[in-house]
């Protein structure tokens, strides 16, 4: 077992020592006021995420995936509990937004440039880098995410899959070492799904730490080394994907997402 947060050494400098997890989350809770009281949307969540890991965070709608992402990115303060990034408590990590990139569920919400090229250049341009470095990073991201033909067109003309590639290119150009993706397969057709899978593979190849929030496990399971299940704000299971899926099937009666609904009898649970 990992030590509780209170045992963590007081540090202010970010460290890349292998024994310090990239993220250390301890007893994280988030409570919201409701009409007649309070609801705990995240309850005593504890987990470590190691550098270079590709983790799937799954769970039904409302299980707390997006809230946890927002806490990890420093966009939402927990009601109680602690998050450390490379051993440093989150509020003290000043450049967290440069280290941890977010792909929001709706890619339109993070597009700011008039053209694809300008949009990718926006992030590194805000980091005080020289024009030459911004240009070089932008070009490299355009190539890495296959957007060469789209560079000069307005982002609104892109397809859903291309918009997600654009958002990922912007994060890559900023040099984010960790990327959290919220429902990256939402509203995508098959080519769009392939496009996002190629983004995930490219980021893995670059050694980035990935956390992918999805309930569409079957699409991305093959690329993940770990599967964490959230249920009503708590961690229900956590481990190697195959082992977690077996437990889900045996203990919860959840259908294995690797199986397809190819025959009518596979859909018998619909009550048809
Ligand atoms: N600002 C808020 N006020 C009250 N409840 C909220 C707020 N934000 C999220 N919630 C609740 O927290 C739960 C988890 O939400 P969310 O993290 O968005 O779920 P998921 O991403 O797994 O679908 C949901 O029940 C949601 O209604
Ligand atoms: Mg969500």
Describe this structure in words.
The chain is built from 8 helices and 10 strands. It has helices spanning 65-72, 96-99, 116-125, 131-144, 160-174, 190-205, 217-220, 241-252; strands spanning 23-34, 37-49, 54-58, 80-85, 88-89, 100-103, 178-182, 209-213, 226-231, 234-239. It has a 6-stranded mixed β-sheet with strand order 6-7-8-3-9-10, sandwiched between helices. It starts with 22 loop residues before the first strand and ends in a 20-residue tail after the last helix. Helix 3 (116-125) crosses helix 4, helix 3 packs parallel to helix 5 (160-174) and helix 4 packs across helix 5 (160-174). The protein has a domain at 52-64 and 96-250: 3-Layer(aba) Sandwich (Rossmann fold). By secondary structure, it is α/β, with parallel strands linked by helices. Residues 1-10 have low confidence and may be disordered.
What fold name goes in the CATH topology slot of the domain at 52-64 and 96-250? Rossmann fold
Order of helices and strands: EEEHEEHEHHHEHEHEEH
Instruction: Provide the gyration radius in Å.
Output: 20 Å
Kindly report the name of the CATH homologous superfamily of the domain at 52-64 and 96-250.
P-loop containing nucleotide triphosphate hydrolases
Main sheet: strand order: 6-7-8-3-9-10
Provide a count of the helices.
8
Distance between the termini: 47 Å
CATH classification class of the domain at 52-64 and 96-250: Alpha Beta
Strand content: 15-25%
Overall helicity: 25-40%
């Amino acid at each position: 077992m990992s030590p509780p947060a209170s045992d963590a050494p007081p540090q202010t400098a970010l460290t890349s020592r292998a024994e310090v997890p990239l993220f250390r989350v301890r007893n994280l809770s988030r409570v919201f006021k409701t009409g007649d009281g309070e609801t705990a949307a995240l309850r005593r969540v504890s987990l470590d995420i190691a550098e270079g890991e590709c983790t799937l965070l799954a769970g039904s709608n409302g299980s707390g995936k997006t809230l946890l992402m927002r806490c990890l990115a420093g966009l939402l303060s927990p009601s109680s509990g602690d998050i450390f990034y490379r051993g440093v408590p989150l509020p003290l990590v000043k450049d967290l937004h440069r280290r941890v990139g977010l792909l929001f569920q709706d890619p339109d919400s993070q597009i700011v440039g008039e053209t694809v090229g300008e949009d990718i250049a926006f992030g590194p341009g805000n980091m005080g880098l020289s024009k030459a470095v911004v240009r070089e990073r932008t070009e490299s991201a355009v190539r890495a995410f296959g957007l060469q033909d789209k560079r000069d067109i307005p982002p609104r003309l892109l397809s859903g899959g291309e918009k997600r590639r654009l958002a990922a290119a912007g994060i890559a150009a900023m040099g984010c070492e960790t990327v959290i993706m919220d429902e990256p397969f939402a509203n995508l057709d098959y080519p769009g799904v392939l496009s996002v899978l190629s983004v995930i593979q490219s980021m893995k190849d670059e050694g980035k730490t990935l956390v992918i929030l999805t309930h569409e496990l079957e699409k991305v399971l093959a690329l993940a080394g770990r599967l964490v299940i959230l249920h009503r704000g708590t961690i229900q299971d956590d481990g190697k994907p195959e082992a977690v899926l077996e437990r889900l099937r045996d203990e919860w009666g959840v259908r294995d997402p690797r199986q397809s609904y190819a025959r009518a009898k596979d859909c018998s649970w619909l009550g048809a």
